[in-house]
Amino acid sequence: MMKTIGIALTILGTALFAGAPARAADWYAPQEPFAVYGNTYYVGTGGISAVLITSPAGHVLIDVGGPLAPDQVVKHIRKLGFKVADIRYILNSHAHTDHAGGIARLQTLSGATVLASPASLNVLSSGRPDKTDPQIANLVPLAPVANIRVLHDGEVVRLGPIAVTAHFTPGHTRGGTSWTWQSRENGRVANMVYADSLYAFSGDGIPFSANPGYPNAKADVEGSIAAVESLDCDVLVSAHPELGGLWERKAKQPALGNAAFIDKDACRGYAARSRARLAQTLADDAAAAEAGKAAR
Ligand SMILES: [Zn+2]
How far is the CA of 295 from the centre of ligand 1 (A)? Predict the structure, then answer.
């Protein structure tokens, strides 16, 4: 029954996305953890991604999910046979509560160091949303994160055989970051991408294209879309799993094994959908500006 409800909510969330922000999806929809490729595992919920990259030297966790997600994520990691205490680094896509709200708790449980871009650091360490965030009207505080090390764009995070590269992808937030690494399975190396949200959204009354607090948001999101589009990308997991097509590929896993997740067009498709979202947001901004002029 619970499973049915979870699936229904996930589908509902996906359907809602056509006209509404992605946070309409159920952040805590139940999801069995699963192998994605080689040493990479999906440990998130049905609504919000979290990925564990494993090695004998310790593990790297990308994203945790919302404030109530840690119980689910911890259960998933243990179910796959890994130890939470072996997580050395926690990375983040962007410092909104649906992706970062559980980081402080996971850090307490694991003792891991959190690595973040300079703009994300400010939000994660204070727990206070960025006042210039296009979505500020809808944002809530996060549990503050204690032990954070700042990264620069292009920095490679190394842990034993793991090497994860940070690609700053601002626009959705100022501190947004996408991550790439390689995983190997049966002698085949796959270029793995954990893509940040690239969708242009703004909160009540703030035009995305003319936000005085973040005037570069449009240029940033365009640059980030182009950056993700041009990545070497065999396996994509996006911060909101359904937006990168994860569930369609997962559906083929019983027949194809983990090769089901290889889709060399995945990042280009994600970029194209993000570009369409930006065009829609800009059209909405223009219509709102016209309506405002007519009202005066
Ligand atoms: Zn967000």
Answer: 32
* Separation of CA 216 and ligand 1 centre (Å): 17
Q: Is the pTM of this model over 0.85?
A: yes
Q: Is residue 23 part of a domain?
A: no
Cα–Cα distance measured from residue 66 to residue 47, given in angstroms and rounded to the nearest whole number = 10
Measured in Å, residue 111 CA sits from the centre of ligand 1 at 25
Residue 52 belongs to what H/E stretch? strand 51-53
Domain assignment present for residue 61? The answer is yes
Q: Which domain holds residue 263?
A: 31-295
**Binning pLDDT at 50, 70 and 90, where does residue 210 land?**
confident
How far is the centre of ligand 1, averaged over its atoms, from the C-alpha of 197 (Å)? 6
Q: Rounded to the nearest whole angstrom, what is the distance from the C-alpha of residue 199 to the centroid of ligand 1?
A: 8
CATH, residue 230: 3.60.15.10
Number of structural domains found in the chain:
1
Burial status of residue 138 (CB atoms within 10 A of its CB: 0-12, 13-18, 19 or more): middle
Domain annotation covers residue 9: no
